[in-house]
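Session log. Operator J.P. requested a structure for one protein chain; no other inputs attached. Running the standard single-chain path with token output.
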Amino acid sequence: MALRDFFRRKKEPIKKKEKQPVKKTEVIKKEIVKPLKKPVKKTDKGLAYSVLKAPHITEKATDLAKNDRYVFKVYKRANKTEIKKAVESLYNVDVINVRTIKVPSKKRIFKGIKGIKKGYKKAIVLIKKGQKIEILPR
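Structure written below.
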């Protein structure tokens, strides 16, 4: 009998909340005021991982490392100032210059199947003489 009573019960209507009237001046203030961005500190390592993907390790890159130039793969939207701050904060070195290169995507055919090799962006970073970056731990 309890099962019949369960199905016979009527559901109670849900009460709607009353909306309070909003003043026009409050709406205008909310649209104009925007939160300020926090200045990036040298110890902020969260920025480094959102800018740098990985070190680009090739023969040419290892030759450049002898002349205090290091090569990194970076995200496509990263600019030179962000890359400079990221390398300085992550490796604790002084960056003098940053050069960026966009490597375009390329069409490839393998066993009759057409495909695309993804493009990427890389950055060549010049650091102060006497400083070193340990990319591969020994």
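Operator note: The CA atoms of residues 40 and 58 lie 31 Å apart.
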